[in-house]
Amino acid sequence: MRILIVEDDMLIAGIVKKALQEESYAVDIAFDGLNGHKMALSEPYDLIVLDIMLPGTDGLTVVKRLRNEGIKIPVLFLTARGDVADRVAGLDAGADDYLVKPFAITELVARVRALLRRQSEERSPLLSAGPLCLDPSSREVKVLDEVIELTSREYAVLEYLLRNKNRLVSKGMIADHVWDYHFDSDYNCTAESVR
After folding, report:
1. Whole-angstrom Cα distance, residue 77 to residue 75?
2. What is the pTM of this model?
3. Dihedral of the CA atoms 174, 44, 26, 102 (nearest 10)?
4. Where are the domains of the chain?
5. What is the pLDDT of residue 180?
6. How far is 87 from 100, CA to CA, in rounded Å?
7. Lowest mean pLDDT among 67-81, 113-127, 181-195
8. Is 2-120 a domain of CATH 3.40.190.10?
9. So what's the architecture of 124-178 in CATH?
10. Among 5-9, 25-29, 55-59, which stretch is predicted with the lowest mean pLDDT?
11. CA-to-CA distance for 23 and 188, rounded, in angstroms?
């Protein structure tokens, strides 16, 4: 799954990115509201972690614009603005959750998992192809009722392929969604070529 962080504090953005990558999410960062909005429109993100106090365009404006443009990506506000009125304004603007700085990274990751789980359940309860069945809410994969153990990367690739069933996807599209880098999909990398 791919997550966009929109945060102008490079230290916080880096900490959040590292924590989410440790959970095997692909993560992109924008350091201002304008670029965050552009990135949210250009990529199929599964979640946005968004600060409110951003240079250029503030986070409230970003989430309002996204909602007005029909973008339903879950948004988690991560901000220093913690008054009840601020939280209400953030949720009323279209955010799905709100976490106040300073925060516990474990709580942030748990909230991300909860939002992604909810989104997966809303999208489709089960993903399948032939005898293979993937349950996004439990992250369980079965073939003919036998549970298959996958690494987090293997799971992410399988989920992406099942969500794009009957569509042509390139190696570049898979890498962009599952890993945190872009590469030339026409280039086949081998162990010898990496040396």
Report:
1. 6
2. 0.69
3. -170
4. 2-120, 124-178
5. 57
6. 9
7. 181-195
8. no
9. Orthogonal Bundle (1.10)
10. 25-29
11. 27
